[in-house]
Amino acid sequence: MIGLAIFVTMMTAPDPPTLRVLTYNIHHGQGEDGVFDLERIARVIKSVKPDLVALQEVDKGTERSSGVDQAAVLGELTGMHVVFGEAMPYDGGSYGEAVLSRWPIVSFEAHALPYQERQEPRSALAARVKPDSGLAELLIVGTHLCHQSDQTRLWQCGMLNRLFANATLTVVMAGDLNAKPGSRPMKELLSGGWIDVDAVGAQPTSPSSSPRLRIDYVLYRKCDPWRAVSVEVLDEPVASDHAPMLAVLEWRGGRIWGLGSRGVGSGRLAETPKAASWTHGLCAQDESGDGPAGRVVED
Asked: Of the candidates 100, 180, 188, 213, which lies 20 to 30 Å from 262 by C-alpha distance?
């Protein structure tokens, strides 16, 4: 009986890997009390031990933020890898998105999103990360959509679908979409195969002092076998005008033929050959039906 018990224990499958994703619009580090405090933002981030963080409204070298490279500072304060993607030049510096990762960032790309005259330019920052937790390399996409026009948001969501809905790597997207559940932009994303991790709970995230609007999201694709374990909007009313949202995802896929990794230049998302790795292999198939094919970024 002892031998049987040992054998059964040895044959027990390991727990599936999980992914902790945080999205946070940090309002260029300025809290509801008017104070610029990146250490406060970093404490909020560290309190939930995320694997990946999508940050919006991040300044780099602007006068209003005293010339600080906010992404670099937050990377240092949290002890995480970091990249910044400019959405537009602003106030003597740059304004855009940042991604923090517990694991090394292999490459990244800031994609300009469509906008109209007299509107703020917006972007999607895609970072390719290399986990050490039993997951394959994946893309975390952080974005911040237009706050001025539903039509512009609709165009931007269409662009996000074209860029990432059929990407051959697993993709998780997070950010401030400035769109309510059921709106045309959200319907566009969901029709492209994205899953809203908090579609049932629909927890509001803005304003942080008394959340009433749900405009911040974490999404994954139907073809990527994730399961949302939990979703939490953090009770942080002062550090920013948005409340941060944490989603914990569990990987339900298996080890199949997918994308491996060969050297890619810093700042670029590049095509990779097939190799054995943890991946889905369902979101994009080549014409022969032999497996994933294509590029994440089309030049």
From this structure: 100
Query: Token digits for 288?
Result: 């022969």
- Per the document, the length of the chain is 299
What tokens appear for 89 in the block? 């030049």
Nearest to 100 by CA among 134, 137, 51: 51
Q: Where are the alpha helices (DSSP H) in the chain?
A: 2-11, 38-47, 70-78, 150-164, 184-191
Question: 3-state DSSP call for residue 7?
Answer: helix
- Per-residue pLDDT reduced to its tens digit, 37-56: 999 999 999 999 999 999 99
* 241, amino acid identity: D
Look-up of token digits 């230049």: 265
String of DSSP letters for 152-164: HHHHHHHHHHHHH
Q: Is 289 left (phi over 0), alpha (psi -120 to 50) or beta?
A: left
